[in-house]
Fold this protein.
Amino acid sequence: MDEALGPPPAMAEKAEELTPMLSQYLELCERYDDALVLFQVGDFYETFCEAAEATARILEITLTQREDSTGTYPMAGIPIDNAESYIETLLEAGYRVAVADQVEDPDETSGLVDRAVTRVVTPGTLTETELLKEEDNNFVACLTDGYGLALLDVSTGDFYATELDRLEAVEDELQRFDPAEAVVGPDAPTDPFASNCMVTPYERSAFDIENAREKVAEYFGETMLASEAELRACGALLSYAEYARGGTTDGETEQLDYLNHLTRYDPREYMLLDAVALRSLEVFEPRHVHGLEGAALVETLDETASALGGRELRDWLRRPLLDEGHIENRLDAVEALVASVGDRERASELLADVYDLERLVARVSRGRADARDLRALESTLSVVPQLRECIADSTDDSDLLAEIHDELDDCPDVRDLIDRAIVESPPVEITEGGVIRDGYDEALDDLRQTEREGKAWIDDLEAQERERTGVDSLKVGHNSVHGYYIEVTNPNLDAVPDDYQRRQTLKNSERFYTPELKEREDEIIRAEGRADEREYDLFREVRTEVGKATERIQTTATAVARLDALCSLATVAARYDYCRPEVGAEGSEASDASRTSSDVSDGIDIEGGRHPVVERTEEAFVPNPTDLPRERPMAVITGPNMSGKSTYMRQVALLCVMAQMGSFVPARRAELPVIDRVFTRVGASDDIAGGRSTFMVEMTELATILEAADENSLVVLDEVGRGTSTTDGYAIAQAATEHLHDEVGAYTLFATHHHELTDVAAELPRARNYHFSAERRPDGVDFEHDLREGPAEASYGVEVANTAGVPADVVQRAEAILADEADGRTTLTADDATPTSEIPASTDGGEASAVSRSSSDASTSDGGELPADILAELQSVDLAETTPLEALNLLSRLKSRVE
Ligand code: ADP
Ligand code: MG
């Protein structure tokens, strides 16, 4: 337990004797014992004791002391005006922060000012814009045992819930949403959460099914049909969000009324992109390969103009669709927008002026919006009618655009109210006046009139008094301490009338006031004070009124977000010459169930495909075709290093992802099936930078693929089997290939440096070999990046070595060894290998056959007959637990025994 949290022992010891203020502090520390309590004292938030020591250190502020009859306590405070940036630093340091504000006016209470925690700031429940990244959601997740998962973005009201059956599926979902904070229930696992995610164990009772059901009903009615685990996750998360919003004075929490759309989803409704795939396809984050930083897919697709559009696009990318109808809907909309260039460009311009509606609305209904927020809301709603116009002509071509058109509601009543009530450029402060327009409220106008009249009277006073006294140098002035005064210089003091009263003596002059001046002044001050109060009340009324339109504004916000995302996809499609993909079975009447492997139309068929990210940086990107029909879904790809294998395979996967999110794709023509899940396994050699180079990791991931892939999956295997010695590696690669081919039937792209694998592929009826070649030039090697049918030349590496200047005798020796190998090589086909079903990736059979193959040029075994003891030893090896070094040792032991 962090010492800075909970009640400070030094105070707790003397709880009975503390001054009322410190005992209030102590009480709040007890109640919010998992958060740093920031305690308002005047213009500062103070912390005491251990908490003061921690904040002073973290925030680099001065540590002072507070004395009281019971002793001296360390104290550190931050100015309230700058609190947000300090709070951010505390969050970064791993703290939750409970903000305890004075909830009574100190001038109006004689005794102790009451304080209450008005919000608990945690990484997952932020709403202050300055602490949030614009284009990203900021989720707090809630996980129960039995894997109910709820995700909420408190700043936008986006709320998702689902139930998962396996821990791996939980991990995959968390990877998609990347929450900043996780609330976990009793018995829920905490290990799926990434290290940058704060884990908050929360009150057991909130997870209780009855409590949770009740809480969910408060928000969404009684009718929600969901499993217990899901209900418990939603209920607990809602109660946590209320807690974080802070209570009212009596400690009661209030409902968050802007959460009106809960998206319950089944992960099976979306293409599954697990953590490994997201990373290796660089969907959201570029990988750092060889220290170079590239771009991620999301950046190449993101031409959104608004923050909410940016978040929407990310959501689409996070959850590519499986439903052909929905995919077509988005593609229709993109096509319509590609066609109407002028309207699209106009829409993008308008969208650039859009403020973050979702977050504005959230702040309005949390009572945290200021006058500028309301103005921003009004100005955003004011572009909505023009946005509608931009798509009015496209509504016939696209159902989705028609829907968006209908949903774009500029809420004229809300606009009118804000426009009438709030001045055009209001100040930041909402308690100090200058917020409400003249003419909006009669009482306010009267107060202002009084104020103006008083000031006008004072303006005239100087001339009047000069005339009355005959003193031309007489001045009327104002200062903040003494108020209004009449100033007369010393030589003229004789002329001062009797009704002048002395206010202040200066070196060369005296300052006076008259009873009438004093009276006017008091009148002005009273009017000002009452006007400020009146304005504040009016402002809050307006804000509450606007808050009633929350649901309508949110609908508009969603429509704006979707339109922005679609415009972005259309802009990219037009600018980079993408084509509309045909997704799913030909003629979309065939459903998944009725799809059979004899559907010839079904399969990946791409002409002139390009990698969306690499083509932007590569001067002359070479487009390549992909032909993986349903009945022959496997390609084994060989070719030298740097020839383009990895790029090509990722390109195929990215085209599928893009098509299913509703985007056009970089290709001349593309027919794509609906892929339910993309699996990738990038060999250890390519992934060292990621710090995941162990053979164990590679095998774990391979195991997942072999177990979970089905015929609608796309499997990308890049140099699998590199993390171990060549023999095991090859054996595993071959066994995996055969399994995917015989048992799974997934669309599979397999790049390998195991050249022998091409012989295997040549014999498999549903696989085909491809290769990338390269030309030798006098000035070096020229990669053509051009995919061709058939296997690569095996000796290619030697040629490269030669070109690169490796001494001739070494090259010749290498060629000789290769020639030997080629002679001795017994081509291993599916027929003469041990039956596939007995060679899953990491069993001994694969190893045995590999050993027999690779040693076939040696003088030992005839036809692969192995001595029984060697077989037994091989059978006892657990490859998944074997390090490369152990494998080598084993091999050398076996070899010496055979010899
Ligand atoms: P491999 O996996 O075969 O070693 P990569 O896919 O990593 O090769 O590609 C090596 C480099 O070649 C990439 O960094 C990329 O810049 C370039 N490249 C790959 N494919 C193409 C292509 N089709 N057209 C142009 N350049 C390409
Ligand atoms: Mg590669």
The chain has a mean pLDDT of 84. The longest helix spans residues 515-547. The first strand starts at residue 36 and ends at 41. The pocket of adenosine-5'-diphosphate (ligand 1) is lined by residues 614, 618, 621-622, 624, 639, 641-647, 785 (CB under 6 Å).
